[in-house]
Amino acid sequence: MGQLAEAEDAIAQANILDNKNCLVWALSAILCLQYGDRRLQQACMCSSEAIRLGLDDVHLLEELGDLFHGQ
Question: How many other CB atoms sit within 10 Å of the CB of residue 17?
């Protein structure tokens, strides 16, 4: 959990620096999904924002899909 918290802090800082970066939003969604159902709603919001901002990285989209499917 310590590493998740550190990763989340880093992604939050990246989002502050550039809140229109679809990759940051996608990584934030992936981190939220690591917490399971507790952060599912936040993961949905982050992934929606990533797609709205133009996320087209097939590997990240696949990973998000797999993680959502596992919930």
Answer: 9
Break the chain into its structural domains and give their ranges: 2-69
User: 15 is written with which tokens?
Assistant: 């989002």
- Structure-token pair, residue 69: 């499917």
Element (H, E) at 3: helix 2-17
CB 15 within 8 A of CB 28: yes
User: What tens digit of pLDDT does each residue of 16-39 get?
Assistant: 999 999 999 999 999 999 988 899
pTM over 0.70: yes
Contact status, residue 67 vs residue 30, Cβ threshold 8 Å: yes
